[in-house]
Specification:
Order of helices and strands: EHEHEEEHEHEHEEEEHHHEE
Radius of gyration: 20 Å
Oligomer: single chain
CATH topology of the largest domain: Rossmann fold
CATH class of the largest domain: Alpha Beta
Pfam families: Response_reg (PF00072), Trans_reg_C (PF00486)
Keywords: DNA-binding, Phosphoprotein, Transcription, Transcription regulation, Two-component regulatory system
InterPro entries: CheY-like_superfamily (IPR011006), OmpR/PhoB-type_DNA-bd (IPR001867), Sig_transdc_resp-reg_receiver (IPR001789), WalR-like (IPR039420), WH-like_DNA-bd_sf (IPR036388)
Protein name: Response regulator transcription factor
Largest sheet: 5 strands, parallel
């Protein structure tokens, strides 16, 4: 899958140049011209990394980064014309994963993105997960029950893999949002909807199949 980037940058010429180059390099790019639009893009989820300018017309990029870091570990590369050491230190202390001072080459930006994405990958997990009759091939991102392949959307697959990696463990809605959407400020109804759809797909298979159990007041677990 193409990594999805949020480019939060108010200079149109620079942003269009970056977006064009990044898309040719194999990324999907959502461009936001100010802090408000950037926050909205991050709230929608599905973003793998944010490229954030500090000098935004409706607020400081540092404040947006600070708000993001209060709820999420989404990788962030700060890009700015501010080359002062104090600005670089402030961005890194708040939680930026990397820092680029304009002007810089697009090739360097792509290399930095790849490096940050590699560092942000979770520890290796088994290639195959088993939970009762459920088999998940994490390399192929496929799930099957007794050989019957499940047709899952990306977030449905991610949710099932998360639960299957720790059968019997209860995950709160906030943990699910943080792990799968990269932000706990999403509405809990998002998790409810995905659990509902996933249960429906499992229910279509002949028993026995694993069950996603709601633990009232706590969250969800997978019972093999």
């Amino acid at each position: 899958m193409r990594p999805h980037l949020a480019l939060i940058e108010d200079e149109p010429d620079f942003a269009l140049m970056c977006r064009s180059y990044l898309e040719r390099a194999g990324f999907t790019v959502t461009w936001a011209m100010d802090a408000r639009a950037g926050k909205s893009a991050l709230h929608e989820g599905g973003i793998d990394l944010a490229i954030l300018d500090l000098g935004l017309p409706d607020g400081s990029g540092l404040e947006l980064l600070r708000a993001l870091r209060s709820t999420s570990r989404l990788p962030v590369i700060v890009v700015t014309g501010r080359g002062a050491e104090a600005d670089r230190v402030a961005g890194l202390e708040i939680g930026a994963d990397d820092y680029l001072v304009k002007p810089f080459s697009q090739r360097e930006l792509v290399a930095r993105i790849h490096a940050v994405l590699r560092r942000s990958q979770p520890p290796d997990v088994p290639t195959v997960l088993r939970a009762g009759s459920l088999l998940i091939d994490t390399g192929a991102r496929q799930a099957s029950v007794d050989g019957v392949l499940l047709t899952l959307r990306p977030k449905e697959y991610a949710l099932l893999e998360m639960l299957a990696a720790a059968p019997g463990r209860v995950f709160s809605s906030e943990q699910v949002l943080e792990r799968i959407w990269g932000a706990s400020w999403q509405q809990p109804a998002t998790v409810v909807e995905h659990v509902y759809r996933l249960r429906g797909k499992l229910a279509q298979l002949p028993p026995p199949v694993p069950r996603i159990v709601t633990v009232r007041g706590y969250g969800y677990r997978l019972d093999p």
